[in-house]
Amino acid sequence: MKAAIFDGTAALKLQDIPIQEPGHDEVLIRIDSATICGTDQHILEGKFWAKPPVVLGHEFSGYVERVGSSVRICQPGDLVSVEPHVYCGCCKPCRLGKPHLCLDRLAWGINLNGGFEQYATVRMDTVYRVPEGISAEEAALGEITGCCMHGIDRVDVGLGDTVVILGGGAAGLILARLAELRGAAKIIISEPNAGRRDQIRTFGYDQVVDPLGEDLSAFVNGATGGLGADVVIEAAGRPDTAEQAIELVCHGGRVLFFGVAAPGKRASIEPNRVFAREITIVGSIRNPYTHHRVMEILPRLRLRSIVTHRFALEDIGEAFATAHRGDGLKICIKPNG
What we know:
- The protein is of the alpha/beta class and 337 residues long.
- Helix content is 29%, strand content 26%.
- It has helices at 38-44, 92-95, 136-140, 142-155, 170-181, 194-202, 216-223, 239-248, 271-277, 291-301, 316-325; strands at residues 2-6, 13-16, 26-35, 54-55, 59-67, 79-82, 85-86, 106-107, 119-123, 127-129, 162-166, 186-190, 208-209, 229-234, 249-257, 280-283, 307-312, 330-334.
- The longest helix has 14 residues, at 142-155.
């Protein structure tokens, strides 16, 4: 089969590699859709770690080709989504019920071969059948949607909240959808990319701000009677927007650091502001125990239009260049055509 290999350099290499036959507790999947995550881009840029040689791509779905003798949760022909993390079960976070913080975690697309290949063999406990009526491309968004769901849980969006989201990419839109379902009364999205702002409006969000051309603080104050937002979600992964989040939140409000800033980047925060306003700041990483819930709620999220570009596996370099330019929302690789 064809696979795009990360060898430690800045460009993926297309190679022929053997198909791995499934063990007794494994599932062989013919990949339909694998979407590019910002983490994939950071790996190629040398900002995040992966174990070369490895096939990248941790957001993927496909059709079951073969199953091991112990597998009962799916059968050949089923459309499935993959939750790509494997936890040790023995470290302190795992034993405290927080496996997403596992100290010895493995992941398909990081140190195990992931979705940028024609077939993937994964453990059955990471495989989830997809509801009827959901496309393979939507199913590939299961991992990022699970991460967003964990973030929304962490920051506790509630009925009547005004939510500001800094960063209107695919994650920002999914966060907006989930906040809406949790009862948010107002959702304001800040996004400097003009093309993305236009696309965000097609999803029904009309309070979309260009932070480079408008005063975002004045806009939020105008929308909240000068009080500030109940919840601010930093989804851009930038130190400046992390600082901005603290300035936009109301007294007693909550801030979520969701965007992935490169390690070593720092933001300046005024401790007295956090103290005086009793601001709660939380972080969110990965997707503990959310993938099942994601499969249940996917039909209500209306995510089909988030995938805006599709590329063959042979054109994965062009796909990453498109993602790097910020064109569209989600870029999808179609390894089998």
